[in-house]
Specification:
With 344 residues, the protein is mainly beta. Helix content is 8%, strand content 50%. It contains one helix and 27 strands. It has a five-stranded mixed β-sheet, with no helix packed on it. The protein has a five-stranded mixed β-sheet with strand order 11-18-17-13-15, with no helix packed on it. Strands 20-27-26-22-24 form a five-stranded mixed β-sheet, with no helix packed on it. Strand 8 and strand 9 form a beta hairpin. It is elongated. It starts with a helix and ends with a strand. About 3% of the residues have low confidence.
Length: 344
């Protein structure tokens, strides 16, 4: 063999060796595949997610080779049927891969799976309880009474599980046939309580003595667990007498504005506070549209009547009547009227 042929052969051998080394280096960068017989163990810390909406737990997968040594750099794929979990993690030098399981608002027992690619796919599952469905719910209203002028009531629902423990993260639906809720759906806090506000106007309870508000949460079997609270409406005080004044008592045919003042008094002739008064008119528009108003500390209620030229269709002069009514003693209505004249 000539020197040139030998040199060429050595050159080819060096290229082959270099290619083999490069191949080994590239393989070293790839994610290693766990050998057949690899084992995976799963654990959760904490073992239960208490808050189904905002809680989480750390899922730890420990991957070991058949000889018991840690399998480093191996990809672990996580999945769950309830909640959300990190889909992929890689084991560290101790063969540990970590993912976070988060609650998504659903209650139940989640089945968490971890899968490792080996000669045959190695998979393992773990059960994690998420939240606790409501076994019972109670509802309180504060205050439990409203006077005739209405007001605001704070509604507090307490949700408990089958062991009587508070359930955080549970959705509670509030409802009321009267008034306006701040937000009909609330979520229980760490103490298992959900709070909502109810605002009631005087006109909404004018003919009401009591009404019920309701709170509902999902029970263990998927049905609704409900609680109610009664709110009592205190009767408006009854007047012994009432007067009605109008200023002015005459307006031109082009229309005008009249101020109406009703004053209610008790049996001793003292101003009656909180008496309900409503006004009606045969012509024009009232500023409160006939809604019930309550007398102030002077026993009086003020209303404004506006009459436009288009309201006046009769030949002037003529007059029309404005009326004020309030509950009187013995259940009868006290009625007062005043005449307004429309001049030419």
């Amino acid at each position: 063999m000539t020197y040139r042929a030998l040199d060429r052969l050595l050159h080819l051998l060096l290229l082959s060796l270099l290619g083999a080394l490069l191949g080994l280096t590239a393989c070293g960068k790839a994610n290693p595949v766990a050998p057949s017989g690899t084992t995976v163990t799963l654990s959760a810390s904490p073992s239960k997610i208490v808050d189904a909406s905002n809680g989480s737990t750390t899922i730890t997968a420990v991957v070991r080779k058949p000889n018991g040594t840690p399998a480093a750099g191996v990809e672990v794929r996580f999945s769950t049927d309830i909640g959300n979990i990190d889909a992929l993690a890689t084991t560290n030098s101790n063969g540990v891969a970590v993912a976070t399981l988060r609650g998504d608002g659903r209650f139940g027992t989640a089945t968490v799976s971890a899968t490792v690619d080996a000669a045959g796919a190695t998979a393992v599952t773990l059960k994690v309880d998420i939240g606790a469905p409501a076994k019972s719910i109670t509802l309180t209203a504060n205050p439990p009474t409203l006077d005739a002028k209405g007001g605001t009531v704070t509604l507090v629902a307490l949700v408990r599980d089958a062991q009587g423990k508070a359930v955080p993260g549970a959705s509670v639906n509030f409802s009321s046939p009267i008034g306006t809720l701040d937000s009909s759906v609330r979520t229980t806090d760490a103490t298992g309580q959900a709070t909502d506000g109810l605002t009631v106007k005087s006109a909404e309870i004018a003919n009401t003595t009591t009404f019920n508000v309701t709170a509902q949460a999902v029970a263990a079997d998927g049905s609704l667990s409900s609680a109610t609270a009664s709110i009592q409406v205190l009767s408006a005080p009854a007047a012994k007498s009432m007067t009605l004044q109008a200023s002015p008592q005459a307006i031109p045919s082009s229309g005008g504005t009249v101020t109406l003042i009703a004053v209610a008094r008790d049996a001793q002739g003292q101003p009656l506070v909180g008496a309900g008064v409503n006004f009606t008119t045969a012509l024009g528009r009232l500023s409160h549209n006939g809604a019930i108003q309550l007398t102030d500390s002077n026993g009086s209620v003020t209303e404004t009547l506006t009459v436009s030229s288009s309201d006046i269709t009769q030949t002037t002069p003529f007059s029309f009547t404005v009326t004020a009514q309030t509950p009187g003693t013995g259940g009868a209505l006290l009625v007062q009227t005043v005449s307004i004249t429309v001049n030419k």
